[in-house]
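Bench notes, afternoon.
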Amino acid sequence: MAYERLVEKLTKENLWLYILTMLREKPMYGYEIAGRLRSDFKIPIATITAYVVLYKMEREGLVERVVEPEGGGGRINVRKVYYRQTDKGRDTLEKGIEYIRSILQTLEGAGKSGSGES
């Protein structure tokens, strides 16, 4: 049960980490982001969940939405929206990764001091 809670906290409850990691590579469409969360990170989410998180991230200034002009791609009156990472998003991701690293180092180093205290 404790392990399952940890997995939930580090995946579904913090999708922004995974989304910003993917957006470092290139801007992406919401549907593409949802698919990669499932395929690359094995996070079983509904596509709508990815969009909800993207909207929240946009409000926080972590990503920005870019709308392709209507009629793009040979279709008439079709607008495609993709998302790209902002500078704030990049900085926030780096802080998040560093925080996770520091926790991991602390956990791995715990009990190795050799002080013999109980």
